[in-house]
Design brief:
By secondary structure, this protein is an alpha/beta fold. It has helices at residues 2-23, 29-45, 52-57, 84-112, 147-162, 165-178, 183-204, 210-217, 236-246, 262-275, 292-311, 321-337, 342-349, 354-367, 373-376, 399-417, 422-425, 456-467, and strands at 62-65, 69-71, 114-117, 122-126, 132-135, 138-142, 231-232, 430-440, 446-452, 475-477, 480-482, 484-494. It has 18 helices and twelve strands.
Length: 495
């Protein structure tokens, strides 16, 4: 969830910077209004959009899923620490209360005023006031406002009503409640408020003298009561900008091509969301929970092992009992991960004893047929020639023993260096599932450590421990050193 929020904020920042740099100064007010509303919505949707072609366009790394490491510290102190979810809920609650307070204040103004009903709107005259604003089909006007200005003010506010500007402001007000922690939502609302005034001013001066209109804006100081979800005629911070925009020459139509800048911005965002790997953690379930990406990586490793196993077998021969059991074990593990694949599942379910296999295999050879299509199929996953070698494992002979030594060394390193006292320090309880990703680069160095954990301090601790790993002998493929990504699941069980 935290990662999703960070992505939303990042996309909103990108859209706002693009708006301020390229579009803000243009007089295409309705286009800019659509841009602000659509980009704010799009920022919430982009993290969910994954385009497979973008994923395929990025070079794939070699990935290995390491066995799960279980840490079991003993929790000696009971500490109650609210999760970040509670902070969000508390913030939403406070923001909602403030919003309701604004509504109550607005209702007080509404009911103490005098109503004048028109065909499509209602004018509310506020006693002893110089307020001037509108919301939905209500126009609030202070009775102390000079009558010479009433016509322009009313015409201005009616533009807000016709254009339904209150819906825009209410939308961003709701975003302020739900995303109270995101300062960019407030900037979005400020930008859309400015546009509303520009749109109304531009509409009015089509039928009135432009100079007379903005002179009236400067004529006197007015009382202001701020409601962020209302359209206010007299807002001091906006008057200078409104006059500047009124005197600005209308933008040329060709400058609408600037909106094409949105295309590379969206493409960059989609490239990021499509290629970024996300991990879904289940911190409540005590059973093993591996996310879709981790399953894919585990399946890839098993298929690589099966491919390497088959490559070392004599074509058309009969496996030894030991090799048959090894192959059967691989097929069972693969079958668990691809239970929806009928062909593989059927093959696993039909697994027979070694004696039955020998009889069937001899019959298959005599008839010139294949016993297993799966055995003979070419596998698309590519395996490395040499795995990274952990210091101290150089004396191991086979690739399998090197891998075992690597896993044991990683497990020992985590258990030795991980600060299990965190359970007491930050009040952890139960099972905490952690997923760590890191790359052993072409030089054997540990880089690009990424950690997903239920608590930020767990992420910091795992990253610290992994950064202490020594320089390894890098992996090799076709005689060249290659980078290798590892996925390391860690279960932190607080007893």
């Amino acid at each position: 969830m935290i990662q999703y929020i960070i992505q939303v904020v990042a996309f909103q920042l990108l859209f706002l910077v693009t708006y301020d740099l390229f579009l803000k100064k243009e007089t295409f007010f309705h286009w800019n209004r659509a841009y602000l509303i659509c980009s704010s919505l799009l920022s919430f949707l982009l993290p969910f959009i994954k385009i497979e072609s973008f994923q395929n366009a990025v070079p794939q790394e070699y990935i290995i899923l390491l066995p799960e490491i279980v840490l079991t510290p003993h929790k000696t102190v009971e500490t109650i620490v609210p999760s970040w979810n509670w902070y969000v809920i508390i913030g939403i609650t406070v923001s909602s209360i403030l919003f309701m307070y604004k509504i109550v204040q607005l209702l007080k103004i509404r009911f103490r005023g005098n109503f004048i009903k028109r065909e499509n709107y209602i004018i509310i005259i506020i006693p002893k006031s110089t307020l001037a604003f509108s919301i939905f089909n209500y126009v609030f006007i202070g009775e102390d406002i000079d009558e010479t200005k009433l016509e322009d003010i009313l015409a201005h506010e009616l533009v807000h009503i016709r254009e339904k500007h209150s819906l825009d402001l209410l939308y961003f007000e709701l975003l302020r409640i739900l995303c109270w922690f995101n300062p960019l939502v407030y900037i979005y609302q400020k930008r859309i408020s400015e546009l509303h005034e520009y749109i109304a001013d531009a509409t009015i001066v089509k039928h009135k003298n432009k100079s007379d209109y903005y002179e009236k804006l400067l004529a006197e100081v007015f009382q202001v009561q701020h409601f962020s979800f209302t359209n206010q005629f007299f807002k001091h911070s906006l008057i200078k900008k409104r006059i500047s925009m009124l005197t600005k020459q209308k933008s040329r139509e060709i400058l609408k091509l600037k909106y094409l800048v949105l295309i590379p911005v969206v493409v960059i965002s989609l490239l990021y969301t499509s290629c970024e790997e996300t991990t879904v953690l289940n911190t409540e379930d005590t059973t093993e929970a591996v996310d879709v990406q981790a399953k894919k990586e585990l399946l890839q490793q098993l298929m690589e092992d099966l491919n390497a196993f088959n490559a070392n077998q004599k074509p058309g021969g009969i496996l030894s009992k030991e090799d048959y059991e090894k192959q059967s074990k691989l097929l069972v593990e693969i079958g668990k991960l691809v239970a929806d694949n009928n062909e593989v599942s059927a093959k696993v379910n039909a697994m027979r004893s070694y004696d039955d296999y020998v009889i069937a295999r001899k019959k298959s050879i005599a008839e010139g047929t294949n016993f297993s299509k799966l055995d003979q199929e070419s596998v698309e996953f590519t395996s490395i020639d040499k795995a990274p070698v952990f210091p101290g494992c150089e004396g191991e002979g086979t690739l399998e023993s090197l891998k075992d030594c690597f896993i044991q060394s990683i497990t020992s390193h985590i258990n030795k260096n991980f600060n299990t006292k965190l359970a007491n320090e930050i009040g952890l309880e139960g099972v905490q599932k952690i997923f760590a990703k890191f790359i052993v680069d072409k030089n054997g160095k540990i880089k690009e450590i990424q950690v997903r954990a239920p608590h930020p301090q767990l992420e910091v601790e795992v990253e610290r421990v992994l950064s202490l790993l020594p320089i390894l002998t890098p992996a090799e493929k076709d005689g060249k050193t290659v980078s290798l990504k590892y996925v390391l699941p860690i279960v932190f069980k607080v007893q």
